[in-house]
Design brief:
single chain; alpha/beta; Nucleotidyltransferase, domain 5; 2 domains; five-stranded mixed β-sheet; 9 helices; 20% strand; ATP binding; ROK; ATPase_NBD
């Protein structure tokens, strides 16, 4: 059996998985490892894959920012990141030196977004934004059936937002403080602001009003600039059932009928592949190399 490999490299954990090349939507085996310093983490990944001798391609969907420009001297590297030890690490080079197979190199949000686009919540459209809200905030953007990239991948989690009038939090982002979406809406920002994790906050807490406001601002910005047919929310924070209806409500208020969009219940949705969105999308991307 020819196998595809997937690496979903997150700031908190790495997820590795394999699938049959003929059925990339079915995860045959998976495991996860705590994200530590690069050499240790990559060795854990390689040791897990070593139990399989029939891997024909591997997709890597990594936390960003990363260099995805094939013409760049640092293609395959992790760029400046607050994650200790990972800045300027040659991730792709370390994998290619271990196993000589084709590698698809992209961001973690592109992997999950592609999974939802091919066979999940966005399978019926040609243009979509997948937004993950968890340890960080990022977006995988599909325009005319292609992942969006310019001189690099989008960093749509760092768009600037207007501060909520009831929010005095200084912000979590080490680069932008409370000016950017990740700085005010990520999971660590919620926990630092309120002193408890998002999982512990009651549904009627002011936190959700503020969180929905920031995420609705982001959806308005993406709608105005990208004109997607779907906006899909993933990550740990949107697991809370109270949040998505609040985002839809606030989006409608802020959009104020300026542009036509589908009904908000169809336009702003959750993931269909759940926690497997990233690895499934990464399998699809790896298969595209064959």
């Amino acid at each position: 059996m020819a196998l595809l490999g997937a690496i979903e490299a997150g700031g908190t954990k790495f997820v590795v998985a394999v699938a049959d090349v003929e059925q990339p939507e079915i995860v045959l085996a998976r495991a996860s490892f705590k994200t530590q310093e690069p050499a240790k983490t990559i060795k854990d990944v390689q040791n897990w894959f070593d139990q399989y001798d029939d891997i024909v391609a591997i997709g890597i969907a990594a936390f960003g920012p990363i260099d995805v420009n094939h013409a760049s001297q640092t293609y395959g590297y992790v760029l400046d990141t607050p994650k200790p030890g990972w800045s300027h690490y040659n991730f792709l080079g370390a994998m290619a030196a271990w196993l000589d197979v084709p590698y698809y190199w992209t961001t973690d949000v592109n992997g999950a977004g592609w999974g939802e686009f091919v066979s999940g919540a966005a399978k019926a459209v040609h243009n979509a934004v997948y937004l993950t809200v968890g340890t960080g905030v990022g977006a995988g953007i599909i325009v005319n059936d292609q992942l969006l990239a310019g001189m690099g991948h989008p960093e749509a989690g760092h768009i600037f937002v207007r501060q909520h009038p009831q929010d005095t939090y200084a912000g979590y982002c080490v680069f932008h403080g409370n000016q950017c979406l990740e700085g005010v809406a990520s999971g660590p920002a919620i926990e630092q602001r309120w002193g408890i994790s998002a999982k512990e906050l009651p549904d009627d807490h002011l936190a959700w009003e503020i969180e929905a406001d920031y995420l609705a601002q982001a959806v308005v910005d993406y709608t105005m600039t990208l004109r997607p047919e779907k906006v899909i929310f993933g990550g740990g924070v949107p697991h809370r059932a109270v949040l998505l209806p609040l985002i839809r409500e606030k989006f409608a208020e802020k959009m104020a009928h300026y542009l036509p969009t589908p009904a908000v219940e169809d336009y702003i949705v959750g993931v269909e592949h759940g926690d497997n969105a990233g690895v499934i999308g990464t399998f699809y991307l790896a298969k595209s190399l064959l």
